[in-house]
Amino acid sequence: MQNKPDFLDQLIDRASKEAGSDYALSKRIGVGRQTVSDWRHGRRPCPAADVALMAHIAGLDADAWASRALIAQYEGTEKGEALKKALKKALAATGAALVSSGAIAQEPISYLIRCIERLNRRRVFDSAMLSLAA
Questions:
Q1: Strand 104-105 vs strand 97-98: parallel, antiparallel, or unpaired?
Q2: Model confidence over 36-57: pLDDT tens digits?
Q3: pLDDT digits (tens, 9 = 90+) for 69-101
């Protein structure tokens, strides 16, 4: 079994919900339904490109999530450490924090998604209030 990133299940869930199903998600990103199942169960690594596509479908920052997936691919290696330094801004954008041991601190993606949704609702509310005030 592959060592899958902690964020992958939640990302697949969110993208699948937006697409309508795992099957619909697989068609939108151009892979087979079994491939999505294999990613979910850690039987196959999920390429950074597909993480980016799922993030886009889920309404998240595709660049940042692709960077996070790329770093996870090289976790615990010299290249992984170099990628963490090179892509530090992308990690911050996805809510991951660099810690002194070099590991990525995994925050539950559901919390991050709720925060993003709250910010979006707040922006819509603020925009509506401004238009009413005008």
A1: antiparallel
A2: 999 999 899 999 999 999 999 9
A3: 888 888 889 998 888 888 876 666 655 433 322
Q: Which helix (H) or strand (E) holds 18?
A: helix 8-19
DSSP run (H or E) holding 120: helix 109-133
pLDDT of residue 80: 85
Rounded distance, CA 130 to CA 74, Å?
Answer: 46
Place of tokens 């998600």: 25
Assign residue 102 a region: left if phi > 0, alpha if psi is -120 to 50, beta otherwise? left
Asked if 59 contacts 69 with a C-beta cutoff of 8 angstroms, the reply is no
Mean pLDDT of 97-116: 45
**Tokens read off for 103:** 């590991």
Q: Cα–Cα distance between 18 and 4 in angstroms, integer?
A: 22
**Collapsing DSSP states into helix, strand and coil, what is residue 104?**
strand
